[in-house]
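User: Here's a structure from my thesis project, written as structure tokens. My advisor, Dr. K., wants to see whether a designed sequence matches the one we expressed. Can you design one independently, without my sequence as a hint?
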């Protein structure tokens, strides 16, 4: 649970998906768009986008029985890309022999937001690439799209930097 545990890298995929789900839509879209426009190596096909409702179930604290407390709107998207990978036989890589392999990216979020989930699914897919572009790097993507982290960092310029700048002017 990223709301209770600090984000550590490399992050497990479940933590990555939870972070993307909670991420700022604009940040996810900007980095996803960077991938689409050729600054990254991911240009997938949308496999599925679903809009619907999910039941929220909790366990009663006394009886231990599971019961529904309501429904929420949710969106989820899957994107797929085909990548060539060298085929391996008997542990040795053959010269120029490649196989096509399908790779899947996924994102889900509360609310109806197709754009965010498509871009988030692309980022999920991109973060598994070797030798990544910054828009593929797990730490870069997850910190820069986290609304609390990014807005907190931005707002810190308001006071500490103001005081520092003011004291430098006085000197």
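Assistant: Designed independently from the structure alone:
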């Amino acid at each position: 649970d990223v709301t209770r545990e600090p984000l550590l890298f490399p992050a497990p995929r479940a933590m990555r998906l939870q972070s993307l789900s909670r991420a700022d839509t604009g940040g996810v879209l900007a980095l996803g768009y960077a991938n689409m426009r050729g600054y990254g190596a991911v240009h997938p096909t949308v496999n599925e986008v679903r809009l619907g409702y999910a039941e929220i179930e909790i366990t009663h604290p006394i009886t231990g029985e599971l019961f529904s407390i309501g429904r929420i709107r949710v969106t989820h998207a899957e994107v797929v890309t085909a990548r060539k990978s060298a085929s391996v036989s008997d542990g040795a890589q053959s010269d120029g022999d490649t196989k096509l392999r399908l790779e899947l990216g996924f994102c889900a979020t509360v609310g109806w937001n197709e754009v965010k989930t498509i871009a988030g699914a692309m980022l999920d897919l991109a973060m598994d690439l070797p030798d990544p572009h910054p828009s593929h790097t797990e730490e870069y993507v997850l910190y820069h799209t986290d609304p609390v982290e990014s807005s907190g960092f931005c707002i810190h310029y308001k006071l500490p930097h103001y005081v520092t700048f003011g004291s430098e002017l006085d000197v």
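When you compare it with your expressed construct, this may help: Residues 25-39 form the longest helix (15 residues).
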